[in-house]
Amino acid sequence: MNRLVTRLQYHEHRMFCFVNQQIRHQSLDFFFNIITHLGGAAASIATALCIALFAEGVWKSAGMLSCVALGLSHVPVAIIKKKYPRLRPYLVLEGTHTCKKPLKDHSFPSGHTTAIFSVTVPMMLITPWVTAILLPVASLVGMSRIYLGLHYPSDVLAGLLIGTTTALTTVAFLG
């Protein structure tokens, strides 16, 4: 079992280093520093609330479901962050590029990725044509977290799974 974990960590670190160190470019620095904020608390809460309050028809329903999914999705994130404290990659891996004011709390799972998927999945389910726009945007938010040195790929994957599962469950029960 230890050999499997060691191999997985090795491959994860290689993936992290590729995204964080090998594909560096000034335009990507600018792009990922902007798009990462779409998964932050201010943007995700504001987006879900504005759609829930000001949209009509199916969009209003999608906004309400997004608000519920967003709120519920952060319960497991908070529990997991406390139970499995993991240092952020920039604190562990030498040569990691990071943003100007990096977060210092625990890395696993990615809260930004959880938020963006919990907000966008209800919209994708209720209005499928927006999937072509929202899925790439949500995925880029997740990738930005690795590019900026704040999360490992498994942190992002866990956030994607938590956000998506919470959204799917919310839509199944309330949609």
Chart the SSEs and their pairings.
Elements: H1 2-22, H2 26-35, H3 41-54, H4 58-83, H5 89-92, H6 111-126, H7 131-147, H8 153-174
Helix pairs in contact: 2-7, 3-4, 3-6, 4-6, 4-8, 6-7, 6-8, 7-8
Figure out the total of helices: 8
What class would the helix/strand composition place it in? Answer: mainly alpha
Strand content: under 5%
Ends apart, CA distance between termini? 42 Å
Question: Mind summarizing the main beta sheet?
Answer: none
Using only CA atoms, what is the Rg?
16 Å
Which runs of at least 5 residues are low in confidence (pLDDT < 50)?
none
Q: What series of H and E elements makes up the topology?
A: HHHHHHHH
Helicity, as a percent range: over 70%
What is the arithmetic mean of pLDDT? Answer: 94
